[in-house]
Design a protein that fits this description.
The protein has about 70 residues and is mainly beta. The chain has a domain at about 15-60. It is built from no helices and 5 strands. It binds zinc ion.
Length: about 70
């Protein structure tokens, strides 16, 4: 019999973890980054070498940033 993986639990929207960042320069998903809460504190695109955190977008929709 084929083995089935454990069922995935849907994650609540508020409690979602960021899987990757989108590089704003080349549009590649980047997995080398560090977050503090919902803020990007460090990121590196291995494709184009972009390491400017402001040039990265959170892969999941971030929503409005009201501060
Ligand atoms: Zn890039």
């Amino acid at each position: 019999m084929a083995e089935q993986g454990p069922p995935k639990k849907p994650t609540p929207a508020e409690d979602r973890e960021i899987d990757y960042l989108m590089c704003g320069q080349c549009g590649t998903p980047c997995y080398v980054f560090e977050m503090e809460g919902s803020k990007i504190i460090e990121a590196l695109c291995l494709v184009c070498g972009n390491d400017e955190v402001r040039m990265f977008n959170i892969g999941e929709e971030a929503g409005a940033d009201d501060e």
